[in-house]
């Protein structure tokens, strides 16, 4: 018994072909949309690859780009088939290709579904990459004279201003590293010598943050140096000051930014998958309705269309049997001629 | 003698109608595009409304939005006209509206040209309003507790960070203004008392700038306090340090930003004017060719299309005499019956001449 059988007369077939053709053009645009999203995601990752130690995985955007290209191509091809299906003479040349094409469509839909799930799951490796990258980035903040790292300061400053964040987890991360280059420290001054002597690594540590951590919404001009010393500033208590510097850490800020982007892309890929499934089903109906004409010579005769010739269980057992037969056939072929004769 | 006569066989008329239909739909899209440009420009101006004192410059985006909407309507009308132009029964009902349509198209194109001229003419005005707005913003920077001015600090800080500028003309503008609120000054300390006494108005002036003037591209962590004191910072010379703070003034930055915006919008507006003009010309040809064809015995014969029935000087003469007769008829109407008859004869003579 066929799965979801529908009766078709000429008018219904024409309408079906036109609808599926229209849907194919829509899904070509959806394929282009996938491609654009993949490109956009790739560019966004590249823009901040310095902050991720150039270690970020471009697997997902590359997959999106590839899937988008394949989707556009397959849907354009499918649209052409639908367009020709209204003309029996043209449709004849496509007939042998239809079954393999439909099977590859089903396979492609599975790939799309996998891509959508990856979009939601790739957040986790990204989190670790970001944490590592930001920690190293802050270490190289002062190295504006080292080739290869001289832009780290600008990148970090612009990132902190853009994303309204400070440090890795919070602003105190800046207290534990030296972010002022030795070129600008007067080693003959007592203050500098004290600070350097106060820790094992001989680093100039201070309770200050770069200017890019400052919050413009603060009612008071920004206090970025001597932050933990309440007596250094009039009417200042660093425990209660909330608006002075950004409270959020940059890892959390970047992760929520990229996470949001990936969630949106994942949702869109799901929608595109649904559209793809719909056009595959439509093409299958077009195919079956044109192959089961009651009177093959008369184009106006009635026909039937379905998704699967037998029920799902029967189709599944059929496929398993065919695969077993193929496997047995391969085994026996290696044996010799006589066993081949018995199998056939 | 007719102006720019072209012969139109039936096939060419059909092609003209189809081409014009496509062109008028493209013009509808360009009208929508114009509207979006106007909205974009207006939002950009509103975003910085806090530092702009007068709103005269808003006339440019307002014109663009109005003309955009109007051109969507007129071009949709043109597409309906040319859809019906091939059908002799449906075309006559559009005839009375066509003169009005041509007048409307002329008005729209001239409004767009006026908007483009205004773009450039108002530049001086724009600069003046930005200068005043910035001056006030810098003066009220510290008043974060005064209602109505409490957002000036955030506005100016964000402006300086976004546009990479500092102060009105340059960073020294901050040296002449007290930008730290009295709430955060310890009036018992000697330093504060010295500074306040050092000037006539009793303001706390210092040689420092807010953090938003800092340039992230500087290789050195930003120095924005005690800028004029040579000994305050190790190995720092204010005159030679180019990357420490932004060198550009915000007035120049803003004017450049808005002028750049208007220069980018300029070509778009020009292309819309060009498209509208071509729809105008094509519709006139279509109108005259179709009317000529309808007057013929065999509607499918060749007909002639032209821009003006007579040459330009003759058409101007015609219009002048029509207007004069209208004016003459007006005051004479309440008078005796003979005079209107006389004038009617004169008008007939004028129109036939």
Automatic annotation (TrEMBL), chain A:
Entry keyword annotation includes Glycoprotein: yes
Q: Which Gene3D superfamilies match?
A: Tetraspanin
Q: Where in the cell is it found?
A: Membrane
Cited SUPFAM superfamilies:
Tetraspanin (SSF48652)
GO BP: any one term: visual perception
Instruction: Please give one Pfam family short name.
Output: Tetraspanin
| InterPro entries, alphabetized | Peripherin/rom-1, Peripherin/rom-1_CS, Peripherin_LEL, Tetraspanin/Peripherin, Tetraspanin_EC2_sf
Indicate yes or no for the key word Transmembrane helix: yes
Classification via CDD domains:
peripherin_like_LEL (cd03162)
* GO-annotated cellular components: plasma membrane
Q: Tell me the keywords, alphabetical order.
A: Cell adhesion, Disulfide bond, Glycoprotein, Membrane, Transmembrane, Transmembrane helix
Residues annotated as transmembrane: 20-41, 62-81, 101-121, 265-286
Give the membrane topology, semicolon-separated if more than one.
Multi-pass membrane protein
Q: Which PANTHER family match?
A: PERIPHERIN-2, TETRASPANIN
Q: Which family does it belong to?
A: Belongs to the PRPH2/ROM1 family.
- Name of this protein: Peripherin-2
Protein's gene: PRPH2
TrEMBL record, chain B:
Family to which this protein belongs: Belongs to the PRPH2/ROM1 family.
Name the source's superkingdom. Eukaryota
Where primarily located?
membrane
* InterPro entries, per database record: Peripherin/rom-1 (IPR000830), Peripherin/rom-1_CS (IPR018498), Peripherin_LEL (IPR042026), Tetraspanin/Peripherin (IPR018499), Tetraspanin_EC2_sf (IPR008952)
Q: Which Pfam families does this UniProt record tie to the protein?
A: Tetraspanin
- Gene name, Swiss-Prot/TrEMBL: rom1b
Q: Cite the entry's keywords alphabetically.
A: Membrane, Transmembrane, Transmembrane helix
Q: Where in the cell is it found?
A: Membrane
Q: Topology in the membrane? A: Multi-pass membrane protein
Query: Which example biological process does GO assign this protein?
Result: visual perception
Extract the SUPFAM superfamilies matched here.
Tetraspanin (SSF48652)
GO cellular component assignments: plasma membrane
Which parts of the sequence are annotated with region: Disordered? 334-353
TM regions (residue ranges): 20-41, 62-78, 98-122
Protein name listed in UniProt: Retinal outer segment membrane protein 1b
């Amino acid at each position: 018994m066929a799965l979801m059988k529908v009766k078709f007369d000429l008018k219904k077939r024409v309408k079906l072909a036109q609808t599926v053709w229209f849907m194919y053009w829509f899904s070509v645009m959806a394929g282009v949309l996938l491609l654009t999203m993949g490109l956009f995601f790739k560019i966004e990752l590249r823009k901040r690859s310095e902050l991720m130690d150039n270690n970020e995985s471009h697997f997902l955007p590359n997959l999106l780009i590839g899937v988008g290209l394949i989707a556009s191509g397959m849907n354009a091809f499918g649209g052409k088939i639908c367009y020709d299906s209204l003309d029996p003479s043209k449709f004849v040349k496509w007939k042998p290709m239809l079954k393999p094409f439909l099977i590859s469509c089903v396979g492609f839909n599975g790939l799309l579904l996998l891509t959508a799930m990856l979009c939601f799951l790739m957040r986790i490796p990204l989190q670790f990459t970001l944490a590592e990258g930001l920690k190293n980035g802050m270490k190289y903040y002062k190295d504006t004279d080292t080739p290869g790292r001289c832009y780290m300061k600008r990148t970090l400053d612009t990132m902190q201003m853009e994303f309204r964040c400070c440090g890795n987890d919070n602003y105190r991360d800046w207290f534990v590293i030296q972010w002022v280059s030795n070129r600008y420290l007067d080693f003959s001054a007592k203050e500098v010598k004290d600070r350097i002597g106060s820790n094992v690594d001989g680093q100039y540590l201070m309770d200050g943050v770069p200017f890019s951590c400052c919050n413009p919404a603060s009612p008071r001009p920004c206090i970025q140096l001597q932050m933990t010393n309440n007596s250094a500033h009039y009417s200042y208590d660093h425990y209660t000051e909330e608006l002075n510097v950004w409270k959020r850490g940059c890892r959390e800020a970047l992760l929520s930014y990229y996470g949001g982007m990936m969630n949106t892309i994942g949702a869109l890929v799901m929608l595109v998958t649904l559209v793809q499934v719909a056009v595959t089903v439509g093409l299958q109906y077009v195919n079956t309705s044109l192959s089961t004409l009651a009177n093959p010579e008369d184009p106006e005769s009635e026909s039937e269309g379905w998704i699967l010739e037998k029920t799902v269980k029967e189709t599944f057992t059929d496929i398993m049997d065919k695969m077993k037969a193929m496997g047995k056939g391969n085994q026996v072929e290696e044996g010799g001629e006589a066993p081949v004769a018995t199998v056939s | 003698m007719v102006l720019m006569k072209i012969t139109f066989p039936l096939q060419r008329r059909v092609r003209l109608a189809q081409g014009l239909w496509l062109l008028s739909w493209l013009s509808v899209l360009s009208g929508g595009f114009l509207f979006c440009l106007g909205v974009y420009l207006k939002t950009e101006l509103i975003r910085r409304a806090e530092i702009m004192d007068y709103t005269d410059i808003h006339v440019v985006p307002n014109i663009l939005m109005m003309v955009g909407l109007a051109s969507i309507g007129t071009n949709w009308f043109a597409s309906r006209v040319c859809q019906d132009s091939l059908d002799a029964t449906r075309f006559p009902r559009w005839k009375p509206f066509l003169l009005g349509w041509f007048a409307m198209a002329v008005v729209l194109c001239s409004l767009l040209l006026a908007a483009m001229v205004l773009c450039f003419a108002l530049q001086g005005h724009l600069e003046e309003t930005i200068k005043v707005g910035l001056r006030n913003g810098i003066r009220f920077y510290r008043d974060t507790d005064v209602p109505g001015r409490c957002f000036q600090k955030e506005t100016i800080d964000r402006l300086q960070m976004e546009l990479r500028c500092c102060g009105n003309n340059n960073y020294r503008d901050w040296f002449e203004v007290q930008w730290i609120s009295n709430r955060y000054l310890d009036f018992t300390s000697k330093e504060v008392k010295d500074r306040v006494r050092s000037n006539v108005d009793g303001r706390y002036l210092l040689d420092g700038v807010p953090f938003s003037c800092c340039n992230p591209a500087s290789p050195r962590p930003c120095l924005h306090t005690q800028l004029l004191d040579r000994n305050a910072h190790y190995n720092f010379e204010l005159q030679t340090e180019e990357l420490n703070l932004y060198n550009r003034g915000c007035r120049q930055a803003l004017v450049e930003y808005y002028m750049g915006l208007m220069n980018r919008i300029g070509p778009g507006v020009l292309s819309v004017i060009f498209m509208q003009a071509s729809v105008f010309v094509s519709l006139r040809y279509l109108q005259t060719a179709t009317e000529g064809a309808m007057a013929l015995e065999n509607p499918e014969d060749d007909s002639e299309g032209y821009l003006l029935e007579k040459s330009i000087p003759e058409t101007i003469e015609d219009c002048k005499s029509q207007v004069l007769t209208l004016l003459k008829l007006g005051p004479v109407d309440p008078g005796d019956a003979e005079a209107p008859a006389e004038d009617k004869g004169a008008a007939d003579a004028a129109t036939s001449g």
